[in-house]
Design brief:
The protein is of the alpha/beta class and 353 residues long. The chain is 53% helix and 13% strand. Among the domains are: 29-135; 138-168; 236-294, no CATH class. Helix 2 packs across helix 3 (161-167), helix 6 (204-225) packs across helix 7 and helix 8 crosses helix 9.
Length: 353
Amino acid sequence: MFRVAAVILVAVLILSVLFYLLTGGSLFEQKVSVYLYIPDATGLGSGSPVRVNGIDVGAVGSVGLSGSNDPSRVVRVIISIARENLRQIPEDSHAQLNSYTVVGDQFVDITSGRSPIPIRPGGEIRYQVSASVTNVDLIEFGKQLRSIDATLAEIQNGTSPLGQFVMGEQVYDSLLKRVTQFERGVAAASRTTGQIGSLLLTDTLYRQMTDPIERLDQTLSRIQSGQGAVGKLLRDDAQYQALENGVSALQRAIASIRAGEGPMGKLAVSDEMYRGWDAGIAKIIQAVDDFSANPLFRTTEMYDNLNGQSRSLRETAHDFRSNPEKYLRFQIFGAKPPASSPHSVAPRAPTLH
């Protein structure tokens, strides 16, 4: 009987050690609970791992409805964690749901915050929506599928330009017609009878480009051979000598002026001649001022007298032209002039020579 009891006791001890090792040494650790509220618990169940920064610290105790009307707090998750692991979870930490298998099994992934105060037993961990592909909004995905389906329906029914091109022949015929017109245009341009074809396939454009170059080359050749005025200047020493002599004469004239030689030099250098010119100019200015200061030119009396005499002379000339007998009176046979004309002079008798 003693042997049986000993064997059972040893077996229990071995099983306890094995269980302790399999549970990571947490068999006799004190457990505490913290809460996490999520909108959907698909793929998450009791016993799902709980990790802090990628390290296992506990497991999901239970998953159930919270009774809240808030869409983001529909499901309540109770997380069971060893008390000593609470020090690794600050109170400003947040949790996400991530997949660790191909079939979509979820685990709670807690990211540590920066607060020095750890979360308390019975506290709540803030939930943050995961950015993984498995959490794609199904409603938005459905909208995209409906949009793609509508586009395919338009193509199949031929209501869109792409559908008309795929299902109908009008767009194809129009495109084929434009391609044909383009080919005809290229063929017409390639003929030498057209303007573009003549430029591309003949030497007209080449000659238009090379003729000015050839004329320039010929001009340079004539200059180099001494033809023309420029060529003679470059090749003939007499032309160059005449030009040099003219420049030398101009330089000598400028030098003589600077030296005070001749009238221009004296004017440029001598103060006496300059003062004489200045005095002459001053006399001319004074004469103009005196002439302008004459009373005859400062009033309109003289102008009015001259204007009146001119008007009288014009009227007399006009009257003489209209009635010359009034001014031309001849005395025939020595008759005396009338009494009304005491100043009339009898004309002399004509003398025959």
